[in-house]
Amino acid sequence: MFSIKTSKGPVSFTRFVGPFINGKFQPSLAATPSRKPLLNPCTEELLENVEEAGPEDVDAAVKSAQAALKGPWKSFTGRKRRNVLLDIAQAVERNIWNLTVLEAACGKPLEEAKFDIEEVVECFRYFAGHADKLHGQNFATEDNHKSYTVRKPVGVCGLITSFNYPLVLAAWKIAPALACGNAIILKPAPQTPLSSLMLGELIAKYTDLPHGVFNVLPGGEAVGSAIVNHKDIHKCSFTGSGGVGRKVMAGAAQSNLKKVTLELGGKSPLIVFADADLDQAVEDVFGAIFSNMGQNCCAGSRLFLEKGIETDFLKKLKARVEEVKIGDTLDEAYNFGTMVDRVQFERVLNFIERAKKDGDSELLVGGKRHGDKGYFIEPTIFHNVKETAMIATEEVFGPVLSVMKPFSSLEEVLERANATPYGLASGVWTKDLTKAEHCVQELEAGVTWINCYNLCSSHLPFGGVKASGFGKDLGAEALDEYTTIKAVTIRV
């Protein structure tokens, strides 16, 4: 057992001895097993050591997944798959505090972590509703031929997630994959594997999911590469950086042309018009960039304000930033946490220092480390940012907002907002619905929020365009990512 201290008292957890394969935890099969020390990013103290998997564990997990697909899992009807997903949702809900603590221990405030786990529950329940309703199409009989389509599971799916929303991102992929009858190899981010490992424990203990259908392999690049390049894995869904996403595509092409879904982050624009409810827009913009300390794929990191409102808006936004309480994320008294690890901490500080020196912007608030212990960075706003500034063109993945120079016209701001290789999300604030609809049609993004931001519902598809990737998590559209369509014609 290991224990994590919170403001409500200590919480104890089972020690995860290694990868979760074929329904149980087991020591890694790697030739030279390694144990990764996980540090609490608030204190920089040891949280737990996790034995990482190796390529040999990928092979073992794939074999157990294949056996399950050919055996008991194959016989599960849609109704039985639905019940498994509902049981997973119930198990997560009953253990919501423990899972919340595991994620808060990685630098996320308790309130945000609890919200995330609640979303995990809803995601599994949503896709449970699809499991017994999968269907193809029937076509009218023509020339003595009857035609129809059948939706089939892809097979073994490799799911690779990012560190910023550990169990949420996993659920977005696991739930539709299971609903469609696939088997899973999940590789959580090396910084945040604990909640995914606990999910394996809960599934084994509280559901009838056959052993081998769900496997969890903590580890780094070696494990991810082995998954991407494995010839018996036929689907890979990846959330992470664009650079790694390109490696995923290359590996998929060179191995077996496996299906790929990529969600690769972005440089999402926020557009506030003068007719907007400015107080609401300030609150929404604050959440768009500073929720999860900016470690958000769809973080609204470029703010465009219509000329004439910038002074008042920035005054209010600065005041809102100054209200945050930065501190230990396992203490409910604080609502703003840390970067996930030292690497990310130093990377974001380098962006900030570069922005200070380049002269391409003016610092409004923040701009430095908070305290002398832990990976805390103050929420930071630069304004009058030039379009070519590094903080305006590259994904910072931290609490840094670039307020661009004010805009004068609708067409001008749309052109500037789209002047990025990314296209994941966008936000617009206006009371003019005609103007809002024009923005919806013209913004080059997979998601557009109007007078709100970062509301992700299980029934709505989520994914980007351009360099932000392709394919969808969530919504009925996600079912297409985990199935193949077989066309059938019968002479009658």
Automatic annotation (TrEMBL):
<dbReference type="InterPro" id="IPR016163">
    <property type="entry name" value="Ald_DH_C"/>
</dbReference>
<protein>
    <submittedName>
        <fullName>Aldehyde dehydrogenase</fullName>
    </submittedName>
</protein>
<dbReference type="InterPro" id="IPR015590">
    <property type="entry name" value="Aldehyde_DH_dom"/>
</dbReference>
<dbReference type="InterPro" id="IPR016162">
    <property type="entry name" value="Ald_DH_N"/>
</dbReference>
<dbReference type="GO" id="GO:0004030">
    <property type="term" value="F:aldehyde dehydrogenase [NAD(P)+] activity"/>
</dbReference>
<dbReference type="GO" id="GO:0019413">
    <property type="term" value="P:acetate biosynthetic process"/>
</dbReference>
<feature type="domain" description="Aldehyde dehydrogenase">
    <location>
        <begin position="35"/>
        <end position="488"/>
    </location>
</feature>
<dbReference type="InterPro" id="IPR016160">
    <property type="entry name" value="Ald_DH_CS_CYS"/>
</dbReference>
<dbReference type="InterPro" id="IPR016161">
    <property type="entry name" value="Ald_DH/histidinol_DH"/>
</dbReference>
<keyword id="KW-0560">Oxidoreductase</keyword>
<comment type="similarity">
    <text>Belongs to the aldehyde dehydrogenase family.</text>
</comment>
<dbReference type="InterPro" id="IPR029510">
    <property type="entry name" value="Ald_DH_CS_GLU"/>
</dbReference>
<feature type="active site">
    <location>
        <position position="263"/>
    </location>
</feature>
<dbReference type="Pfam" id="PF00171">
    <property type="entry name" value="Aldedh"/>
</dbReference>
